[in-house]
Amino acid sequence: AKRLTEMVVELLDFTRLQDGRMTLSMETTDIRAEFEDTVYMYSSRLTQEGIDLEYLDNDEEIPEISCDPKRLRQVFLNILDNAAKHGGEGKRIEASIHHEPDTGNVVVRIRDYGHGIPEDEIPLVKKKFYKGSSKARGTGIGLAVCDEIVEMHGGTLTLENAPGGGTLVT
Q1: In sequence order, what are the residues at sequence separation of 6 or more whose Cβ sits closer than 8 angstroms to the Cβ of residue 73?
Q2: 80 in helix, strand or coil?
Q3: Fewer C-beta within 10 Å: the chain N or C terminus?
Q4: Comparing C-alpha atoms, which of 107, 57, 55, 110 is closest to residue 81?
Q5: What confidence category does residue 110 fall into, taking pLDDT thresholds of 50, 70 and 90?
């Protein structure tokens, strides 16, 4: 029932995006706190699955940003869930947040240590309903929704194979 509910919510979000009805509730947000809360909340679930979610803490000052914290948390959770589903056999996920003072960008990275994405599928993974060769559960719209939310915030979502194996989402 929980998984069905998640799928329905994803489909409704996707429909709202397609129709142009999804709006952002922008507010000044401590994005580091939102990201850390999401990582720590999710790490306890992953521990039960035998996956270590490591937050790579740093002393950088990360400015508050104008964003929709609920929607960005949705993006963070979806990407962490994908890392667990598709890269969970690596038993390790790393998460970090940085500020690039020269560009003003806040950069979030989530890396798994699984098999990575087949090179020919990388350009397709953010397309709606695309599941590729993966046999993992899901609808194939999560990354499409994440991509749209990030773009609505003026950002870019990239996926690539990490050096040494696994997938890096930035």
Answers
A1: 34, 37, 38
A2: helix
A3: N
A4: 110
A5: very high
CA angle 13, 14, 19 (to 5 degrees): 100
- Tell me: the pLDDT tens digits for 120-153? 988 888 887 666 666 566 667 789 889 989 999 9
Report phi then psi at 25, rounded to 5. Answer: -100, 90
User: d(Cα 34, Cα 54) in Å, to the nearest integer?
Assistant: 16
Which tokens go with 69? 């914290």
pLDDT of residue 128: 74
Strand partners, 170: none
Please enumerate in sequence order all residues whose Cβ is within 8 A of that of 17, keeping only pairs 6 or more positions apart, or say none. Answer: 145, 148
Tell me the per-residue pLDDT of 71-104, one tens digit each, with 9 for 90 and over: 999 999 999 999 998 887 889 999 999 999 999 9
